[in-house]
Amino acid sequence: MSETPNERSRGPGLIVALDGPGSSGKSSVGAAAAQILGYRFCDTGLLYRAVTWLALQRAVESTDTEALVALVAAVELAPDEEGRLARVIVGGVDVTADVRAGSIDERVSEVARVAEIRSALLSRQRALARDGRIVMAGRDIGTVVLPDADLKLFLDASVEERARRRAAERGIAPDGVEAARILADLRRRDRMDSSRPVAPLRAAEDAVHVRSDGNSFDETVAAVVAQIRSAEERAR
Ligand code: C5P
Question: In this structure, is residue 185 part of a structural domain?
Answer without folding.
Answer: yes
